[in-house]
Amino acid sequence: MRVVLKGIHKVKARLATGEGKTYYYAWRGGPQMKATPGTPEFVREYHEAHAGARQPRAGTFMTIITRYKASPEFSGLAPATRRSYLAYIKLIEDEFGDLPVAALADRRVRGEFKGWRDRFGNTPRKADFAWTVLARVLSFAKDRGIIATNPCERGGRLYSGSRRDKIWSEEDIAALLSIAPKEIQLALMLAIWTGQRQGDLLRLPWSAYDGTHIRLKQSKTGRRIVMPAGAPLKTVLDITERRGPVILTNSLGRPWTSDGFRSSWGKLSDRAGIEDLTFHDLRGTAVVRLAIAGATVPQIATFTGHSLRDVEAILDAHYLGRDIQLAEAAVLKLEGRTKL
């Protein structure tokens, strides 16, 4: 006998290998189903998920949260972002689920929210993300006319660190290349010659490279980027064996997982004596390398996909006032244009 399960939410995704996969959720925004569809285990898991679901009481913050999780704003997020959001939404539900919606109009509620955020103060980034998710849910409620004001608008950030002043020197790059296996060498070359994020590079398929240019859509911003492959990068790509659909693979010829790549990269950095520099810092390094070569801010932004403001921020006081190579490049340009 066939059992009809109402509200099952299906999400189709493309794996790094190029294969398609369908994920099943008990409902839109609900928990992921691990069992195989059509099996008794799947039916049991479905009923357990619904039995354990917290039913929102009318007029409470929980009703807003439930509507948000069923909204296009939430379902439209990237799968990884949705998973991260759900972890923090659970914290919000546990703390404020029974809060009357009417209480959100009380100006004192912002202090209550900040007090909750401050509990995570020993991990500022976690505190900031918790605040961000809370503000996003309340923004949804305001846009839907459920509340008149968002008590979590503006402010709320604890983490103030910036890595804009972290740059890989030529010596750092050479040190890592000297001990890195070819799989990591290729990742490093892609990073410094494209300025793209780790996640986008790990997913980059061979079909994105046509022999002269690399084309990709940035997962974070949605920007479509077309980059000429610089001669050193082109040389490496052209001699690299294509062991699968994606360009970057581990020593077994399989696509990297984010954690696996991060672990291997970290161990190699330690061996090379690289301190306080990450793979992500290569993105800013690519911006500075382009500036030293004489590229303008618009040219750099077009190449790397940064906004003009971000490029200017990276090149502002962090580099323009400190990097002697930039100063020397500026003088050489001036010397070429005047005799005085």
Automatic annotation (TrEMBL):
Q: Which domain of life is it from?
A: Bacteria
User: What is the protein name for this chain?
Assistant: Tyrosine-type recombinase/integrase
Record keyword NAD present: no
Per its UniProt record, what Gene3D superfamilies does this chain match?
1.10.150.130, Intergrase catalytic core
Do you know which SUPFAM superfamilies this protein is assigned to? DNA breaking-rejoining enzymes (SSF56349)
Does Ribonucleoprotein show up as a keyword for this record? no
Q: What InterPro entries does the record point to?
A: DNA_brk_join_enz, Integrase-like_cat_sf, Integrase_catalytic, Integrase_recombinase_N, Tyrosine_recombinase_XerCD
